[in-house]
Amino acid sequence: MLANLRRHVLAASLSAVLFSFSLAAYARDEGPTIDLGSADPNQTVNVTLVLKLQHTESLEQYVYQTVTPGNPQYGHFLSTSQFASRFGPSDRDLAQIGAFLQKNGIAEVEVLPSHLAIRATGTIGQFSTAFQTPVHEYERDGHRFHRPSHHPELPVALSNTLVIAAGLSNEPKYISHRVNSNKVVALTAAPAIATLTTASGSTATNTPGEYTVGDVANFYNINPLYQAGINGKGTTIGIVTLAGFLPQDAYDYWSLIGLTTKPGRITQVHVDGGGVISSAAGSGETSLDVEQSGGLAPFADILVYDAPNTSGGFLGAFYKAVSDNVADSISVSWGQPEIFYFDSPLTGGDYTSELVAFHQVFLEAAAQGISMFAATGDSGAYDTVRALGHTDFSAPLTVDAPASDPFITAAGGTTLPFTFSFAGGPKASIATEQVWGWDYLQTYLDKVRPGVYDLFATGGGGGVSIFWPTPFYQRFTHGIRQSEANQSLVAQNPSVSLPGYTQTTPLTLLTLPAHYSGRNLPDVSLNADPETGYLLISSTDAENGVVTGEGGTSFVAPQLNGISALLTQNAGHRVGFWNPQVYLLQDFLGYGKYSPVSDIKAGDNWFYQGKNGYDPGAGLGTLDVSKYARLLKFGF
Fold it and tell me: Can you tell me which residues form the catalytic site (predicted)?
């Protein structure tokens, strides 16, 4: 697969596109980015060097074998050392990289056990010389950061060994996939902890907008596992995140809803100087990840790998978590539009190497039996909208990364049935669980308050990757789509100032390939609509710690993570990469009596409609967890 990627990217005839840092700045109405000149060459930075996998096609085949019942390799997952021996770079490659770093004065080096990544610490001056790129200091709206002034150049001698050197920029890059209903439609104020009680003293509230993990257990048939003594005991949940948090928030949440959990279960691992705690950094995101995953598997241990919100931090956290190989499952609720990675003359380089770097670590995780989950985003079928808006820039059909990678389970979103009334309007109802897209609210509010609200395109992320081809497990699934025609990213407001351009007319930044047979996402979905959303405890987000009306696919990824811990305990071993197993079961069982997935036939994510079978709104559908557990335990 990897061998064909560059050929695919070139064949796509993509025109220039701004890199995500600059684009996101315009979307947030921030001021211009001011180049302050060369960064301090003596400043210490951490850089993650990702090395190339060996025998990639054999590795992909091995992953499929480990999750195919009846195959001799079924359930035979590799240790990190076994992975390094079979698929990692050679000792010669490692020595070559080590000599290169030493030659440039970079002596503080750690080779991860997988041999796929080297964490190196040195100065900006040393790395700037090594990779032939000046690093400049910049300022935007009073915030200072540094980044290369052009794309780093990999030495020719290392071109067959090194995928990417990430970490020379500390500019925030990724978006938390979390949405609050209060941001759009005014709800009642969040209750104080002392006055909020769960229904009948249970862990569930039965209240839309204040749902808990107890409600999730009711919705998706998890309770039979709890009744059988399955609670995550003996398993470890991993969280990869880009903000620190206060563990007490999670303990307070579980205590508030009356949930008994294993004490002292949270361990924080700070990667590359991670651990910043603030609302602005996204600490509430980390809190909800831990609360949801750990709440569904109350006796699982929890490892939280937090890193700075940079490309180097994100990659570093994944490579550390997977190479440690302690977590049985890992989720992530951060990402950015997949199209932000494509080659751009404006930034002087091809950032698709980052997608390849993510892909490698997801393959390693799958080979080691670690189940991985990623949120698909909250911009419906138009993933750039949360990053860019839709007034200054067009909104092409796009998907989110890393959820678009074929070796991670993409977590989409639904809306549960509920009755609502907003802005003085009449009552209305959602009658059945449907694909989450706030166009149902837009239609309602347009009648009640015409022209006041603009909810486009809030909803569960989903669509077709234009980078990753359709994976094997989707080739026989009815409903898999190709990319649509006539999709372009256009700077359509002449007043927007773009680096290197004097713009007087709309400027096409990127033309997406039409009819590309790409990986479809999501894979499975659970409730994510903030209007039928959740209670969150986050002392960084609210004075009393309690936030209601929370939602987004940020909730679904950690919920699947907690569910995976239950499946692991129930099976007596790691369950590995979910996707081939779930798709095979659905293809074989359909949506019948024994199927572990329930079809979502209503709603839409602003483009893809809920319908019979797979759709890029809700994927295969929602889970019946107990049925899935039973099938996995007995090897189907």
Answer: 285, 289, 554
